[in-house]
Amino acid sequence: MSKTLFQRIIDREISANIEHEDDRCIVIHDIQPAAPVHLLIIPKTVIPRVGDASPSDEATLGHLLITAGAVAKKLNLARGFRLVINHGPDACETVPHLHVHMLAKRQMSWPPG
User: Fold this and answer.
1) How many C-beta atoms surround the C-beta of residue 82 within 10 A?
2) Among the options 38, 97, 99, 101, which is catalytic?
3) In the predicted structure, residue 113 carries a pLDDT above the cut 80
4) Separation CA 43–CA 63 (nearest Å)
5) Is 63 marked active-site?
6) Residue-wise pLDDT tens digits, 47-80
């Protein structure tokens, strides 16, 4: 099985603008930003989609959200940010490696989509 794009970034085979990294995840700037701040919070463990996560992934999933909060504080995003997880082609998922989009520094609309 070939590596996902994100595995290749984690392994430094492809360069990325890294905002944060720890032993469980990496946070990179999206190369096609949909907001002035558009980060991807990616677990180093491959979980193809959020709907494919198992109970053993609970700590990893929680860590992604805690990391989002810490990065938001670091970047002074107190006015707000949005977290998005896409699942499958109808949700515009393009990489089969779970990741959380963090969007900020622009007014968001509701409902999204």
Assistant:
1) 14
2) 99
3) no
4) 9
5) no
6) 999 999 999 999 999 999 999 999 999 999 989 9
Give a yes or no: residue 66 inside a domain.
yes
pLDDT tens, position by position, 8-26: 999 999 999 999 999 999 9
| Separation in Å, CA 77 to CA 38, 85, 99, 106 | 12, 19, 20, 11
CATH number at residue 58: 3.30.428.10
Q: In this structure, which amino acid lies at residue 32? A: Q
Q: What is the 3-state secondary structure (H, E, C) of the chain?
A: CCCCHHHHHHCCCCCCCEEEECCCEEEEECCCCCCCEEEEEEECCCCCCHHHCCHHHHHHHHHHHHHHHHHHHHCCCCCCEEEECCCCHHHCCCCCCCCEEEEECCCCCCCCC
Angstrom CA distances, 40 to 18, 29, 56, 86, 95, stand at 10, 6, 22, 12, 12
Cα 56 to Cα 12: distance, rounded to the nearest angstrom: 27
Please state the domain count of the chain. Answer: 1
